[in-house]
Amino acid sequence: MNYVSPEPAAGALAREQAALAGIARDGGTVDIGQALDDGPFTLLQRFAVLLTALAIVVDGFDGQLIGFAIPTLMKEWGVTRNAFAPVVAAGLVGMGIGSAFAGLFADRFGRRWAVIGSVLVFGVATCAISLAPHVEALAALRFLAGLGIGGALPSATTMTAEFTPARYRTFAVTATIVCVPLGGMLAGLFAGEVLPAYGWRGLFVAGGVLPLVLVVALLAALPESPRFLARRARRWPELARLLGRMAREVPPDATFTDVREQKAEKHAGFTALFRDGRARDSAAIWAAFFMCLLAVYSAFSWLPSMLTGEGLSVSLAGYALSAYNLGGVIGALACAIAITRYGSRWPLLLCCAGGAASAWLLLGVDAQQHTGLLILGLGLHGLFVNAVQSTMYALCAYVYPTSMRATGTASAVAFGRFGAILSAFAGAAVITTGGASAYLLMLGAAMAAVLCMLAVVRRHIPKTQTAKVG
Predict the structure, then answer these.
(1) So where does this one cross the membrane (predicted)?
(2) Distance between CA atoms of 285 and 223, rounded to whole angstroms?
């Protein structure tokens, strides 16, 4: 895969002409890699990326609803914070399973159905949560919702990567992933209005209806990935029609190849992630996802609860998590731009260091006396942490070629979910025993560990403008 900076108009035109020339090579044989990676970024491609981004917005929205609801549920049901640790864990276990199986499903049956199926599952399950009569039912339904929430993320990022020309891919993948904190930010603002008026049940009804509406739009308008279609000879006529809609006219009986990626592909399946010199990078990326998701979900699940425990109102606690997510949106986009220009190594390492430092600098800040400063600091922490988390998906898209890309991304996220699951119990225990100080120490330590893991990765996205095969 290629990761290059946007070019001047003349250079871009030359690349697009070369890509279109690749369509006609060897008679009726089309190099799908050249046609997509070096070709124009057409309206249809942008629309497909937009639809996958919307799937991640509702994914982030539903994924964080439980964090906003827990303080209200604690009062209504008369239970302690620790009683909700299994509920949070159940959702995160579901996300881990969903991430792993969605990647395999997407590589076998297509990215389109993986995205649609994931959104449908978490939409239905989130609606059903509104009917939960007790903690046990809430945990079971949260597990089912987690299957879809976990599956949507790797499937959507793979779809985005495979619809986007190489020179825009890092930014496009990151912009898709940044929709997770964007959805969380919208959920915080929404919860601040809905919880007082309609309670937690109304919050989950709304959270379930939104993805179900999106499912209808996805069924009507989302095309299958052209790179996936190129690997299914029986679907080549469908691919030829799709390319025509993407300003790449090909004969109806054209055959397809992917020269660049086939050079890098000697094995397929899970074991390929640890062959051809990828073992060290795969292990380091998995560990980085583990620690980063520990930090991220400690905030998503427990930040409002920690702040209410420090004496803030439910509304202020919700706004603090919204600030965390807003910082994440800004940080992820800024980091993606930096990676496009400088490569991924130093931007990621600097953001890891910023994530650790910003958490530790908040130690000793009194939540009630310096609420504004605390919320600002949490926004800054969210900026650094989500910058790392979001752009690691682009790193996966670079490290793994097409045949294993969805599996590689999904496996890294699935392993990372164990860190998220750990956060369900660690967050509750740390806040209960040590309060805000212990909580912030944990967040900083997690990001320091991510820094060490990403420093070990060999195949970082390069800063040069020369082509590179994943």
Answers:
(1) 47-71, 83-106, 113-133, 139-159, 171-191, 203-222, 283-304, 316-339, 346-363, 375-400, 412-432, 438-457
(2) 30
Residue pLDDT, tens place only, 454-469: 999 999 998 854 334 3
Distance (Å, whole) CA 390 – CA 385? 9
List the structure tokens of 420: 């998220």
- The residue range of the domain holding 170 is 41-228+269-456
229 contacts 48 by C-beta, under 8 angstroms: no
To which H or E segment does residue 114 belong?
helix 111-129
Q: Which residue has the tokens 């993986």?
A: 114
If you search the block for the tokens 């997690």, which residue do you land on?
Answer: 446
Return the structure tokens found at 329: 């949106």
Q: Are 210 and 58 in contact (CB under 8 A)?
A: yes
189 in any annotated domain: yes
CB 290 within 8 A of CB 419: yes
CA separation (Å) from 197 to 130, 182, 249, 312?
15, 23, 54, 20
The reply to whether 237 falls in a domain is no
Of 15, 411, 393, the C-alpha closest to 5 is 15
User: What is residue 277's DSSP assignment?
Assistant: T
Task: Residue count of the chain, please give it.
Answer: 470
* Domains held by the chain: number: 1
pLDDT, tens only, 35-88: 888 888 999 999 999 999 999 999 999 999 998 899 889 889 999 888 999 999
Residue 259 lies in a domain: no
419-442 burial by CB neighbour count: b if 16+ within 10 A, else e? Answer: bbbbbbebbbebbbeeebeebbeb
Question: Residue 164 is part of a domain; what is its CATH number?
Answer: 1.20.1250.20
Using one digit for the tens of pLDDT, what is the confidence trace for 18-33? 444 455 444 578 888 8
